[in-house]
Design goal:
The protein is mainly alpha-helical. The chain has one domain. The protein has 3 helices and no strands. Helix 1 packs antiparallel against helix 2. The protein is elongated. It starts with a helix and ends with a helix. The mean pLDDT is 88.
Length: 97
């Protein structure tokens, strides 16, 4: 089976930065109080950071069983965080329309 951990680490770290930019821009424009955008982006930040952590652990461990476990945890955390970002994008789209 191909190792997914390096791909998860790369994508999670990039989307973590994207989520932080969302939160920062919402705070600067003072929009964060009127929507749930910053909550979704904040949850996504935490989940992406945890996904980065577990994918890094999967890369660094030498135990095959632990590597698979860490990789699966990172994968699921990444998926949930991605769902939070999609919700944030939907909220922005609805707000603009």
């Amino acid at each position: 089976m191909e190792k997914k951990s390096p791909h998860i680490l790369n994508a999670s770290s990039n989307l973590l930065g994207f989520s932080l930019i969302i939160i920062t821009s919402l705070k600067i424009t003072k929009i964060s109080g009127s929507t749930y955008l910053d909550e979704f982006a904040g949850v996504a930040c935490i989940l992406f950071a945890c996904s980065c952590f577990f994918s890094f652990l999967a890369i660094r461990t030498h135990n095959e069983k632990r590597e698979t476990k860490f990789e699966n945890i990172a994968d699921y955390l990444f998926l949930i965080a991605l769902f939070c970002i999609v919700l944030a994008v939907v909220i922005v789209t609805i707000r603009i329309m």
